[in-house]
Amino acid sequence: MNFHVLTLFPDMIEAGLHTSVTGRALKNGYIHLSAVNIRDYSKDKHKHVDDYPYGGGAGMVMQPEPIYLAYEDVTQNMEKKPRVVYVTPQGSVFNQSMAEEFSKEEDLIFLCGHYEGVDERILEEIVTDYVSIGDYVLTGGELPAMVMIDAVSRLVPGVLNNEESAEFESFHDNLLEHPQYTRPVEFRGRKVPDVLLSGHHGNIDKWRREQSLKRTLERRPDLIETAILSKEDEKYLKK
Ligand code: SAM
């Protein structure tokens, strides 16, 4: 899968994603990343990419031309026009099912805004998806783009090894994951639940499922309505 990020801060994208699991995936060729500096496409002699907003008001707005030229360059050899995600606090809030949908694309372009945002006309011209990472305002779109690329990458086959499998994690069935424990058996007086030491896989699975339901009810009750529940789950929830 190929990620293309149109940004004023390509170094931030490169540094953030060339580490840990995404770094390994990039090195092994499961995913590809190009961080494209919008400033390189400015025709202004001082390489300006922003200007004052028409109508007045605070801050600067990113101009459409350099972004369009960067977009044209990135897409020139592509057979079909890829999805272009504008990361914006005004978008739908990113979630696991969006990550799954995006992971099926061959190419995905992210447009990162800065300052007061981006001239509306370039958004109308190239953007297919408006996506936010939450109801707060950041200084730029680089962190949101990295968040989304990280979440999408780990769903690309080969990126995670067996030990890191994404199969039974939070949001699988729309439930939160059960609590996890590792050695030692006792830490500051807190013991690992006996069932996990029992070696009885049936009981362990049942305990984990119940913990998952309990945790979702406590922390994210809004998820339960759309969770995929079995008859056993329903019984547990009625208790
Ligand atoms: N004036 C804009 C508004 O009120 O919607 C906010 C601009 S913000 C300071 C600069 C850029 O950061 C945005 O263009 C967007 O790309 C990015 N950004 C900020 N918060 C974000 C969020 N919660 N999710 C995704 N992108 C965000």
UniProtKB/TrEMBL annotation:
Residues 1-225 form the tRNA methyltransferase TRMD/TRM10-type domain. S-adenosyl-L-methionine binds at residues 113, 133-138. It comes from the Bacteria. Its main location: cytoplasm. Its EC number is 2.1.1.228. It holds the Pfam family tRNA_m1G_MT. It catalyses: guanosine(37) in tRNA + S-adenosyl-L-methionine = N(1)-methylguanosine(37) in tRNA + S-adenosyl-L-homocysteine + H(+). It is found in: Cytoplasm. InterPro entries: Alpha/beta_knot_MTases, tRNA_m1G_MeTrfase_C_sf, tRNA_m1G_MeTrfase_TrmD, tRNA_m1G_MTases_N, tRNA_MeTrfase_TRMD/TRM10. CDD domains: TrmD-like. GO terms for biological process: tRNA N1-guanine methylation. Keywords: Cytoplasm, Methyltransferase, S-adenosyl-L-methionine, Transferase, tRNA processing. GO terms for cellular component: cytosol. GO terms for molecular function: tRNA (guanine(37)-N1)-methyltransferase activity. Specifically methylates guanosine-37 in various tRNAs. Belongs to the RNA methyltransferase TrmD family. NCBIfam families: PRK00026.1 (NF000648), trmD (TIGR00088). Homodimer. This is tRNA (guanine-N(1)-)-methyltransferase.
